[in-house]
Structures are given as structure tokens and as C-alpha cells.
Amino acid sequence: MSYCKYMFVFQMCIAVIGCGGSSGDVDIITPEPPAPPAKNERILELWGGTGERYLQGELWLPSENYDAAHVLMVPLHWSFLRSEQSFVQEDFVEFFTRYERVFEETLDTHFQRRLQFFYLNTQFLKLIIQSGAEFDEHQQSLYKKILQNLEELWTNAEVTTYGGRVFSGGMRERLDFKLNEFAPNPEYARAIFDEEFHFLSVSADIAFITNALDLTQPVFLTEILSYASTLYAQESLLTDEGGWLFQPGVWSHYRDYRYAGNEILVPDLVEMILDDIATDSSHLHRMPLWLLSLRDAYSVQSDEYQLFDDLFGRLKWQFENHILVSATAEFQAPRMNNYSDGRNGVYRYNYATVGDNLGYGPYQNSGNLMLSWYSFLKSTKLKSDFSNMTFPLNDNILETYVGPNTTRERNPLVAWPAYFSNGFSELYVLMSQDIMAQ
Fold first, then answer.
1. Residue 2, Cβ neighbours under 10 Å: how many?
2. Which of 53, 173, 422, 424 has the highest Cβ tally under 10 A?
3. Cα(413)–Cα(424) distance, rounded to whole angstroms?
């Protein structure tokens, strides 16, 4: 489907709220055959020393939920794929049961962190549905509580955007602004960022669950899906090669991107703005699952399903051809270019949690591969790179993966550089291979 056709379909959808919805069909997960004994034993050994210990913490707290939502996603999906290791799945069931019991009193007031952690929850609930299991009382309660939160955030919450503009009408009012204001000051005031991406994806998962349970989909949820499909159609750039970029150039004057034209990292860099710079490869790593969530909220025959399915395929092409850099004799591990259009200039120079005269030089977003959701693209190129990785990692790999590091306080199990040496990143690589082989 061409981009023009996308726009025709979804301009119609924005005017007709009822265009969302799903057939209610659910693809049941078919567990993979057991892994080879040696690999399986290594995964379970690593799980006991990392993931199992990590899940015993209160990872819903503001100091923990940002990292937890990232690093637990691949293990969560693996636990449903490898059902013969049911105790790993049981660890997650117990964790989300604990969270449901303290949901209200621990709700993060920071909307982005809250929604990012919600997404881990809704992915869990979606996997329960796809596994053919029935919701227990805690899972039903978690579904209802998140649904209620979405309704409040959609129209009643006070939200802001870059430049200081305040929207008292919630996410809907802010998206109306971003869909219709093409020359704001600053330009990046219309950029779609993580808070909105997670809001739309959580909503899509809740819509999937609602339809799978044969419940009536609330009007506000159908409305959110309509906005999501319109947004992705309008803000996408489909390349002639078969790739995809989202809002290229919109971030170009934002502080994180102002040095992107510098190809080396040295002290006292001067700004070198690239007006058409694409999203950085580290933030984009969530996009594979976001697209799958949005796709699965619709029936397979719908134009919306085809939109998100096509974008997913184009993202895979973009990843394999412009983001991922395979291992070489000199650097025996996969890397990423810093930007999703294949550029590899400096990112986040002088960023608050990085330090003065520091930033991410070429390839220094690559450490995010070791917790990314790019694995869900099921790239044969990445699978090959991961299968050839050996641990412990060499010093030159660690130096690139860790980069300038962050001053943000982290749980010791997922703090860098410990994450790359304590077994957690090795666990991720092994589990990802199973996911990519599915």
C-alpha cells in the first residue's frame, strides 16, 4: 500500500471514530521445542543469578521501573515461548500479582515511566491470552486498572510538550496539536516521544485483550486507535529502498541531536545540525513491539493491520541495512550506527547524565542491543551475530557498549558495566536467539 493510500484511508478514519476494532481472533502461541540441553542449562543458570533475583524486587517503584520495562521484555516473551520451563513464567506471574496488590499506592506520578511500565504489564496480559490460559483475578484486576488509567490520561490529565506548552485536555488534546500544527516553536514541540508511543501501544494491547475476551470496547479506546493509525500514516517517510523513517528532521534542533554532524567525539565540539536527521537507534529499539501491538489491535483483513504490518517489515529492512553493523575481525560483536538513517555522528553531547565534553561517539549506542526489542524483528542477520558472540566480552567491546555511561542510579543487577559481565546480557543474547528462531 502506498503512502498516499495510507493517508487517504486514515484521513477518513480520523473523522470516523468507529474505524478501529478487532475481529477478536487470537493467535495462540505455539511453544518451541526444547532448547539443546547445554544451552538450556546455561539459560536457567543465568536466570537464577539474574532475572529471578531481579523480579524479587519492587521494580514498579520510580527508581526501578524505567530499566525493568526494558530488560525484562525479552525474558518475559521467552518464558511463554519455552513453556517446558514453566517456573520462569511462574516467576513473572508472581511478580505481576505482587504489583497488582500495590497498584494504587505505588502508581508513578511521572507519566512516561508509568506508561512504560504499564506496557510490560499489558504485554504480560496479552501473552496470557495468546497462551490459551484464562485470566486469574489479579490479571483481571490489572487489566481493569490500566484501562481506567488510560481513560483518565486520554482526556483529563494535564500534559506538556517541548517548549512548555500545557494541555489540560490530556493526551488527545496534545495529539490534536501535533497532528495539525506543522510549524510550532520550537519545531520539536510536535515530536512524538516515548510517553505517547507507550500510551498508544498500551491502549492497543488493552484493545486486543478486550476483544479477545469478547468485551465491549469503550468508545475512548476505539478513538485512541484511530488517532494512532492516523499518526503513523501521516508522520511516516517510506523510502524507495523499502525502509521507513518516523518524523525525520523533527528532532534536529533538540539538544540531544545538535551535534549529529560531528563524526568524531572530541572536547569542545561545536554544534553541527543535520536538518533531516532521523531518530536515534537507541530510542527506536522499542518500535518493533509497538508496531506489533498496534497491528494486533485490528483484524487481519483491515487496512490498519496492513499499515502496521507493512511498517514492521520496513523497520526490519531499515534495521538490517542502516542500523545494524555486524561483527568484524577487529570488533567481534554487533554494533549499531547511532541514528536510524545510518548516520553515525555524535549523540547527546554534554547531556545531563553524561557530563561535560562527553557524549555518545560513533557506535556508542550499541550497548542498547543487549537489552533492545530489536530481537522481535527476527532478523537473521542479528541472530547470526548473536550466535557468534562469546562471553565474557572483550575490553574493546565493553568500552564501546558502555560508552560514556550514565550517572543515573540503577539497580546493581542492571547497572552498566555490571550488566555486561554478571550474566544478564548473556541471558538476553541466548533468549533472543530462541525468539528470533521462532
1. 8
2. 424
3. 8
Average pLDDT for the chain: 92
Let me know if residue 425 belongs to a domain. yes
Asked, for residue 30, whether it belongs to a domain, the answer is: no
Report the domain count for the chain: 1
Give the residue numbers spanning the domain of 120.
Answer: 3-22+38-436
Counting Cα atoms < 13 Å in the Cβ hemisphere of 98 gives 13
C-alpha cell at 7: 493517508
Residue 33 falls within a domain, yes or no?
Answer: no
* Residue at 28 is within a domain: no
- The distance of Cα 401 from the centroid of its chain, to the nearest Å, equals 19
First vs last C-alpha separation in the chain: 27
How far is the C-alpha of 144 from the C-alpha of 138, rounded, in Å? 10
* 75-98 residue pLDDT tens: 999 999 987 678 899 999 999 999
Is the confidence at residue 16, as pLDDT, over 70? no
Three cell numbers, residue 62 = 520510580
Closest CA to 19 of 177, 223, 290: 223
Q: Quote the CA–CA distance of 63 and 411 in Å, as a whole number.
A: 8
Q: What is the CATH number of the domain that holds 234?
A: 1.50.10
**Residue 165 burial (C-beta neighbours within 10 Å; 0-12, 13-18, 19+):** middle
Q: Model's pTM, two decimal places? A: 0.92
